[in-house]
Amino acid sequence: MDTEVVVVGAGLAGLRCALRLSELGHEVIVLEAEDEVGGRVRTDVVDGFRCDRGFQVLNPAYPAVRRWVDLAALDLHSFRAGVLVRTTDRLVTLADPVREPGLLPATLRSGLVGPLELAALARWTARVLVDPQAVLRGPDTDLTDSLDAVGARGPIRRQVLEPFLAGVLADSHGTSSAAFTKLLVRMFALGRPGLPAAGMTALPRQLAQSLGDRVRLGDRVLEVTTGDGAGAVTGAVAGAVTGAVTGAVTGAVTVRSDAGTTRARAVVVATDPVTAGTLTPIPAPETKGLVTWWFEAPEAPVHEALLAIDGRERSAGFRTSPGPVWNTAVVSNAAPTYAPPGRHLVQATTLLDRPDGDAPEDAVLSHVGEILGCDTQRWEVVTRHRIESALPAVPPPLRLHSEVSLGNGLFVCGDHRDTASIQGALVSGNRTAEAVARHLGTARR
C-alpha cells in the first residue's frame, strides 16, 4: 500500500475527515484538483478586494464550528441581526429587538410588524427553538405548505421571510424542507453570522494548516477503483449505497490522478456532489445554483451592516422578485478588511432557478440601485462568480444523514450526505473518518 487512506478533495468535509483520521493515528493524504484548499469555500483577491465565491457567511453558533474551529483566530466580523427591506416607497429596517434594541424604533416604523402574523411565525419557530430534535422526529413538508399551515400570510412572510430564505437556500420556489429551514432559522436566532477578516478562505486554510504537505494541491483525481487490481467499481459496491457495510478490510482501493496511481486501504471521496457522482456509484443529487456579483461603489449606499432584500410583490403564491437580485449587502460595512481603505465593496446575488439568474450587469446594477435607493452608474464590477452547484437541494422529507460507506474501502462525504451547510460539511467529514477507522479496525480514541 502507498498509504492507509486517500481523501479526494480538500473542501471542508475532506479536511475535517483527514484531520480526524490523523488524530486517530492513520496515515492519510489529501488530493485536491485546485491550487487552493476550500472547495466551494474560496476567496478571490481582486485589486485589493476580498470576494468570496458566492456570498457566504460563517455562523459561530454551529456546534461543529464551535468544536473544531478556532473562531478567535479567524477574527470574525459580524453582520447585525436584521435586514433592510425595499418596500414600494422606502427602504425599511426589520431587526431582532432583543439583539438589536437600538433598531427597535426603526423596526416598529417599518409597517411590516403585525401581531397576528408574529403569533403565526412564533408558532412556526417555537418548537425548533426549544426542542430541535422534536422537529426532526416529526413529519416534514415543504416551506410553502409549512408556512401556510400556521396561517403566516402577511407582509413579514411575503416581503421578508420568503425573499430572505430564497437567497439562503438558493431556492426561490419554496420547495425546500421545512424542517431543514427551521434548523437554519434556529441557527440565525442563536448566532451572529459574519466574515473572517481574511475572507471565507481563512476557514479551510485553518483546517489544512496542521495537515501540512499531506495536502497535495493541483492533483486531479480521474478514477477510483476497488479490488486488488484496476477496474470498474463493482456492482457489490453500488448495492451498498443504501445500507451500512461492515466486515474485514479486503484488497485495496486504487486512485488514478494527474500525478499517477496511489493504492490505499481506504479512499474517501470528499468532492462536490456532482464530481462525487462521477467517481462513485452514488447518483449525483440535485443542486442549486447562483451568481454573485461584486461591485466597487464610490460611496457606501447605506451604512448599516445589514443584508438588503426586495420586499415588493409582483405575484401570488411564493413570491417572485421584481428583478434578478435576491439579496445585496455592502459587505465592507460588516468586514472593512474586504475592501482597501476608503473603498466600498457591494455584493449582489441572483438565483439560477429563475429565468433571470444569468441577468446581465446593467440589469443587476439597476435592481441593486432600486433596492438600496442609490445611483449605481459609477459602480465598477470587481468580479462575478457563477456557481452551478452552490448547494445540494434539500427537499422534504429531510434526511439528516446518508450512508457514507459504499463498501470495499470506498467512502463518500460532504454536505450532500448530511445537511447543506458548513455544519453539515464538517459533521460529514468527522463521521466519515470514524466510519473509515471502524473499517480499518481501529478503536475510537
Describe what you observe in this structure:
With 445 residues, this protein is α/β, with parallel strands linked by helices. It has two domains: 3-42 and 201-285 and 396-440, FAD/NAD(P)-binding domain; 45-196 and 287-392, Polyamine Oxidase, Chain A, domain 2 (Alpha-Beta Complex), CATH 3.90.660. It has 15 helices and 19 strands. The strands form five sheets. Strands 1, 2, 9, 10, 11, 12, 18 and 19 form an eight-stranded mixed sheet that branches. Strands 15-16-13-17 form a four-stranded antiparallel sheet, sandwiched between helices. Strand 11 and strand 12 (260-269) form a beta hairpin. The protein is globular. The two termini are 24 Å apart. The model is unreliable at 228-249 (pLDDT under 50).
How would you summarize what this structure contains?
This protein is an alpha/beta fold.
What topology does this entry show?
Layout: E1 3-8, H1 12-23, E2 28-32, E3 43-46, E4 49-52, H2 63-68, H3 71-74, E5 76-78, E6 82-86, E7 91-95, H4 104-109, H5 115-130, H6 132-137, H7 143-149, H8 155-169, H9 178-190, E8 194-196, H10 202-209, E9 215-217, E10 221-227, H11 235-239, E11 252-257, E12 260-269, H12 273-279, E13 287-297, E14 307-310, E15 325-330, H13 331-334, E16 344-351, H14 361-372, E17 380-392, E18 405-407, E19 410-412, H15 422-440
Parallel strand pairs: 1-2, 1-12, 2-9, 6-14, 12-19
Antiparallel strand pairs: 3-4, 5-8, 6-7, 10-11, 11-12, 13-16, 13-17, 15-16, 18-19
Helix pairs in contact: 1-10, 1-15, 5-9
